[in-house]
Design brief:
Chain lengths: ~290, ~230
């Protein structure tokens, strides 16, 4: 069942157009929402939640119009926009006491458990927390009102590898019951390799693809060859990097399989994104 | 709305609000334009908006299960509550001044219902300028306050100026209009005519306040709906 469905979302800014964005998040899954800085990830998330007024499109939450039922829908959604960076001089317990008043389904026991699990001291002020702890506090708030869908905008950016890994474990644990889903935007692709079931890739305000993680990776191959082979394959390369001994690049799977003399290897998400983002898909970098 | 108001009191309330509300004691200063004390309350309101902005309140509120319109309405209600507290304090100080300061106020409006009416109009002017101006962007509190403050000060000069000038014009040139103001409006009401005149002024002030604040809220909601919360 689709817990969130975005159809033809559109937002025009001077110099930027979020155009015809469509994708769906399945129940019990983690969807990675990827793209480089400025691709439109945050604008999409903010438009979904009406923080930014979209120029067009529809957003359905559990099959109902999210914007028409904004208050009720938001009760079921936990939103984490990076770290908790609000009211830094206030104590965690003050923020929690204010926040819980908005949710009839607030679960004090779950909140206490999460605070202990994340080693968060309610007497501390937001300003006294590290970046990772602020993300954890934001998660504790989002998870304590029994949200069915977590929308996380760059939650792991700026965290050290250990904290990131810890958070990814938490994400996997959250969806284990099959009743929770996560939409998780990031430009740290290695995080997605570890936990995403589905991937939606946004480039320059347009959705490049939205599919399951395995199909996404399987659609491409990393190839390498001699410099003399490059002119012959240049048009079929999504992106490539030329070097003194030849070139390495990314090809669509069917093109790679049809190429006889190139060395072919499975593609990882990071390579797919790096080669795809190269200007015109064919930027070379002499090394 | 209750939860949002709770948030306003627990997170957005700036300590200077209490200090500025305490400036109601300025009503004990002999011969002073007492409307100035209300301007300080506008200053306190500006601090609330600035504090909320600096603490990322717009994004924090946007994450909560409330609409943008509800957040605007809650903040406006918070403003109205602070202004109502100031008006109650103002009424109390007027009553106190009746026994402690029997002399007339040569510096502006006397302690009376007229002062309350003028205060209501002052807050009405501030609300109708400041609130929609702020919510046009959702973050430019400084320029919104500057515009509101200009409106408020024009009103203070006009209202207090009228009260200062009325007795002089009334008794030197014997103009009935100014004589009426001096005898019935610029005083603590003791005669039936003065009570009636000041009650009408107070009623008019209430109407102006209600109308302007309602317009301010409506405009603010409409404008903030178009703002991208950053």
């Amino acid at each position: 069942m689709k817990i969130l469905e975005v159809r033809n979302l559109r937002k025009q800014y001077p110099g930027f157009l979020l155009d015809d964005v469509s994708f769906a998040v399945e129940e019990g899954c983690i969807m990675g929402f990827i793209g480089r800085n400025g691709a439109g990830k945050t604008t999409t998330i903010k438009s979904i939640l009406n923080l930014v007024r979209a120029d067009g499109g529809t957003v359905l939450f559990e099959g109902n119009d999210l914007w028409a039922n904004e208050t009720e829908s938001k009760k079921q959604i936990g939103l984490v926009l990076g770290e908790f960076d609000y009211y830094k001089r206030k104590k965690l317990k003050t923020i929690a006491a204010v926040t819980k008043r908005f949710y009839a389904d607030w679960d004090d026991a779950a909140y206490e458990t999460l605070m202990k699990r994340f080693a968060l001291d309610p007497e501390k002020k937001i300003a006294e927390l590290s970046q990772g702890m602020r993300v954890k506090f934001a998660l504790a708030l989002a998870l304590s009102h029994r949200a069915k869908l977590l929308i996380l905008d760059e939650p792991t950016s700026g965290l050290d590898p250990v904290s990131r890994d810890e958070l990814l474990d938490i994400f996997r644990a959250i969806i284990e019951d099959g009743a929770h889903s996560i939409l998780f935007s990031t430009h740290i692709i290695s995080d997605l390799e570890k936990c995403a079931d589905y991937v939606t890739y946004v480039k320059d305000g347009r959705i490049l693809c939205s599919t399951d993680a395995d199909s996404f990776k399987d659609a491409y191959r990393l190839v390498s060859g001699e410099a003399a082979d490059l002119p012959r394959y240049r048009d079929r390369l999504v992106g490539y990097r030329a070097h003194a001994f030849g070139f390495t690049g990314l090809m669509k799977r069917e093109d790679a399989e049809a190429s006889g003399e190139l060395r072919v290897a499975p593609a990882d998400m990071e390579s797919i994104m790096i080669y795809t983002e190269k200007e015109d898909g064919h930027e070379s970098a002499a090394e | 709305m209750k939860a949002l108001l709770n948030k306003e009191f627990k997170l957005c309330l700036h300590p200077t609000v209490f200090i500025y509300l305490a400036l109601i004691l300025m009503l004990l200063i002999p011969n002073y334009p007492y409307l100035v004390s209300c301007f300080f309350v506008c200053n306190a309101i500006f601090f609330i908006f600035q504090t909320a902005r600096e603490n990322g309140d717009a994004l924090y509120s946007a994450m909560l299960p409330v609409s943008k319109a509800q957040t605007v309405k809650a903040r406006c209600l918070f403003v109205v509550i602070i202004q109502a507290i100031d008006l109650v304090l103002l009424a109390g100080m007027c009553a106190f001044a009746l026994v402690s300061m029997p002399h007339t106020n040569a510096g502006g409006t006397d302690h009376g219902l007229t002062l309350l009416a003028f205060a209501l109009v002052l807050f009405a002017i501030f609300n109708v300028i400041f609130l929609p101006s702020f919510y046009k962007t959702g973050y430019k509190a400084g320029s919104a306050f500057l515009k509101g403050a200009i409106g408020v000060w024009i009103w203070i000069v006009l209202a207090e100026g009228l009260m200062i000038a009325s007795p002089a014009i009334a008794f030197s040139a014997n103009v009935p209009f100014f004589r009426f103001i001096a005898v019935n409006l610029d005083c603590f009401p003791k005669t039936a005519t003065a009570w009636t005149a000041q009650a009408i002024a107070f009623g008019a002030g209430l109407l102006i306040y209600a109308a302007c604040t309602a317009i301010a809220v409506r405009l603010s909601v409409k404008r903030y709906e178009q703002v991208s919360v950053q």
